[in-house]
């Protein structure tokens, strides 16, 4: 039996309210029973909507306008606040870290920034890139909206831009500075790319498109432009309700790809063939509303879904790679990120 330690990122109310979130919470997870237990508040923070860990340190965006990113040191039972700095943009939604620098995506202002890390704390800004462009959706795509900074390596970063329907590919040096101009892969008009995930062994990437309710399978090869191999729907045929996607995960063995639907309120799972293409979609209700985030535990036996609008985290047993029985449901105020600590 392994009992893992997790952190939960949440949205906090603008003004304190009864039952409202106060920041980052700590939880434990039992990989034999699937029991998810909230232990309490690990650190007060304003809308820590995405978390990442590097070594003994945790970094959180503060999804505000103006935006901020914060650093914490891990202790035995909580988090020790180190510092916070402006992200030079509005409503940052994603952060990634290396030993020497971190990157942040500013959603509302469509920019990406990198910062030096010094003894775990966030130091001076190293570089900044402003995206441009728009899409056909008049409400959601009036301008660029960077949504993730996904590190393929310490010197290769992908940034899906929901507002411009583009996937940017950045080269970054050891100090965190951008090298040359980024590569750009144009996706379908109105798709709204949100997050990207790679296959563990194949030269393919999976991009989940928030507005189009689709997943693109992209082939990537050295010194060649990325090419779309396949596009699949994340919602069942015939579904005509309002829905948007959010998170995407590839199983550790590469046999399944999972995505979350907000509105349809489900986890969709696909089988992956030898070329990385997707088939055989199955759908599992998240037993809650607006599953902004989900993750698979380190053992690979359980899937945990964070339902933002119904204030709960739901644990599914994975049955032959697919979400099966619900074994635990726990109240959490506005959960939007789950981070297993290592």
In the predicted model, the low-confidence regions spanning at least 5 consecutive residues are: none
Provide the succession of SSEs.
Answer: EEEEEEEEEEEEEEEEEEEEEEEEEEEE
> What is the count of helical runs?
0
Molecular shape: globular
**Within the largest sheet, what's the order of strands?**
3-2-1-28
List the helices and strands and how they pair.
Blueprint: E1 3-10, E2 23-30, E3 36-44, E4 51-54, E5 57-62, E6 68-74, E7 79-86, E8 92-97, E9 101-106, E10 111-118, E11 121-130, E12 150-153, E13 156-161, E14 166-171, E15 183-186, E16 193-198, E17 204-209, E18 214-221, E19 224-233, E20 244-250, E21 256-262, E22 266-272, E23 278-285, E24 291-296, E25 302-307, E26 312-319, E27 322-331, E28 335-340
Antiparallel strand pairs: 1-2, 1-28, 2-3, 4-5, 5-6, 6-7, 8-9, 9-10, 10-11, 12-13, 13-14, 14-15, 16-17, 17-18, 18-19, 20-21, 21-22, 22-23, 24-25, 25-26, 26-27
Tags for this model:
mainly beta, four-stranded antiparallel sheet, 28 strands, 57% strand, globular
Concise synopsis of the structure shown:
The chain is mostly beta strands. The protein has strands at 3-10, 23-30, 36-44, 51-54, 57-62, 68-74, 79-86, 92-97, 101-106, 111-118, 121-130, 150-153, 156-161, 166-171, 183-186, 193-198, 204-209, 214-221, 224-233, 244-250, 256-262, 266-272, 278-285, 291-296, 302-307, 312-319, 322-331, 335-340. The strands form 7 sheets. A 4-stranded antiparallel beta sheet has the order 3-2-1-28, with no helix packed on it.
